[in-house]
Design goal:
Blueprint (H helix, E strand, L loop, with lengths): L1 H53 L1 H11 L10 H26 L13 H4 L2 H10 L5 H11 L3
Length: 150
């Protein structure tokens, strides 16, 4: 009878030890996923900036937009389309950060690194108003509150 109790105690300690090990592994895996997610967001930002770096016209239009010196009517169709797609990349990037935040992989401070001033410009706001329906309504409300500092 005494041997049985010893085996049960050993079994119980083994189960507890296994649960502790699994908990540590899950914690390490979560940290790795968060790190990879933050790295991917940084990569997306780099790729986004790279578009303006490599395209002189896009850089110029972005500069004008950031200084409120341009509207949709000031652009020809091709330049407007290019800039609209550029802005859409940005909107999707913010949406990705939002989804990663919503799923618990990023903290709220991730939104501090978005570069919200770009999304607050009149030209980009106009594009957002035209394209808002292409996004999930929940994200759209969140984005507008974030953009408008509410």
């Amino acid at each position: 009878m005494k041997n049985r109790q010893i085996f049960e105690i050993i079994g119980l300690l083994s189960v507890i030890g296994s649960l502790i090990f699994v908990g540590i592994e899950i914690n390490q895996n979560t940290a790795a996923i968060r790190g990879a997610t933050q790295q991917e967001v940084s990569y997306q930002i780099s790729e986004y900036y790279k578009i303006a770096i490599e395209n002189e016209r896009m850089a110029y239009i972005s500069y004008q937009a950031m200084n409120n010196d341009i509207s949709k009517n000031d652009l020809d169709i091709a330049d407007y389309q290019r800039f609209m797609f550029f802005a859409m990349i940005g909107f999707r990037r913010v949406e990705n950060v939002y989804l990663q935040y919503k799923n618990g992989f990023l903290d709220e401070d991730a939104f501090d690194r978005i570069g919200m001033a770009f999304y607050q410009t009149p030209l980009v706001r106009e594009i957002w108003d035209e394209r808002r329906k292409a996004f999930d309504p929940e994200f759209a409300v969140f984005f507008e509150k974030l953009r408008d500092n509410e």
